[in-house]
């Protein structure tokens, strides 16, 4: 079946950004002048997945409201003749058909994905994590959808990471020879997965990043997956079972090894790097901010202000 739906987990507490996230959902923190979650929904829509389910919590009403129409604000902008901002405000509500469901308790990513089962039904679907922003010039999700259409089963986005940070990720064991899929990125067959292993026990440096295209069978596995690392239901544990049973059930698990531009907005330093980089590349902001940044660095950066 063609993939038409995307699930975006957005129920996390955002503790790494406290106190900013005490009252503001981390997904609504601005990346330049748009909330991070909007980039993710736009990515899904750009890949043809215009049926989007947000998995939120009781403190995330602002995330749901962002993708709704705001008649009062639109009227005020219209009366001011501010057509550019009016178009941007309306654009967020027109990106996709956005639904939401609440995750009653923080029971892990696997449980968040399972909350999407009634909406997804018996269809393959995509999962996009809001902390990972993929540059719009790098068609990772489109490639993953093509791999899933060709081979069936599930597809996971992988990325080579330095050994010193491998323990922060789920890590894949893959076949030595890549699959000849003829795409932009290398496709590999995944045989096993482990969540956040010690660096000296990691089977590879191929880390899972926040993009998945999953067979509906994952729901069946998640329902019986016990809490794992951190006392939470780990999506990696369920995908590990699928990968190990792939030959038996005829549903392979593949990985697409991404080599493009990824911004980790769940980390404070990487979040700031993403804001600076994207601002510098904007036609309306870059000509002003990039020369200032060059001058700031040339003058010694923070040392010059001491």
CATH 2nd-level architecture: Alpha-Beta Complex
Poorly predicted runs are: none
CA-based gyration radius: 20 Å
First CA to last CA: what distance? Answer: 61 Å
Largest sheet: 9 strands, mixed
Question: What would CATH call the homologous superfamily?
Answer: Spore Coat Polysaccharide Biosynthesis Protein SpsA, Chain A
Structural class: alpha/beta
Order of helices and strands: EEEHEHHHEHHEEHEEEEHHHEEHH
Going across the major beta sheet, what is the strand order? 5-4-1-6-11-8-12-10-9
CATH class: Alpha Beta
Mean pLDDT: 89
Summarize the entry for a quick read:
With 306 residues, the protein is of the alpha/beta class.
């Amino acid at each position: 079946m063609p993939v038409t739906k995307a699930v975006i987990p957005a129920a996390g507490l955002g503790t790494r950004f406290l106190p900013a996230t005490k009252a503001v959902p981390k997904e609504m923190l601005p990346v330049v002048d748009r909330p991070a979650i909007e980039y993710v929904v736009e990515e899904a829509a750009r890949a043809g997945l215009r049926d989007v389910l947000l998995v939120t919590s009781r403190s995330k009403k602002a995330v749901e409201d962002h993708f709704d129409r705001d008649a009062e604000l639109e009227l005020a902008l219209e009366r001011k003749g501010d057509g550019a901002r009016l178009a941007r405000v309306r654009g967020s509500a027109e990106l996709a058909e956005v639904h939401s469901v609440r995750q009653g308790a923080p029971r892990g990513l696997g449980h968040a994905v399972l909350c999407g089962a009634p909406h997804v039904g018996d269809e393959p679907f995509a999962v996009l994590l809001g902390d990972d922003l993929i540059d719009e010039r790098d068609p990772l999700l489109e490639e993953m959808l093509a791999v899933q259409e060709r081979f069936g089963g599930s597809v996971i986005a992988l990325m080579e990471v330095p050994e010193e940070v491998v323990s922060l990720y789920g890590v894949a064991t893959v076949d030595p020879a890549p699959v000849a899929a003829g795409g932009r990125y290398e496709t590999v067959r995944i045989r096993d997965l482990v969540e956040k292993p010690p660096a000296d026990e990691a089977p590879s440096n191929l880390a899972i990043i926040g993009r998945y295209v999953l067979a509906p069978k994952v729901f069946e596995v998640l329902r019986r997956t016990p809490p794992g690392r951190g006392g939470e239901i780990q999506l990696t544990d369920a995908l590990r079972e699928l990968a190990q049973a792939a030959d038996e059930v005829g549903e392979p698990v593949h990985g697409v090894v991404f080599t493009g531009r990824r911004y980790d907005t769940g980390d404070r330093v990487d979040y700031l790097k993403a804001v600076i980089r994207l601002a510098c590349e904007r036609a309306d902001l870059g000509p002003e901010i990039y020369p200032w940044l060059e001058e700031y660095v040339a003058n010694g950066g923070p040392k010059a202000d001491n």
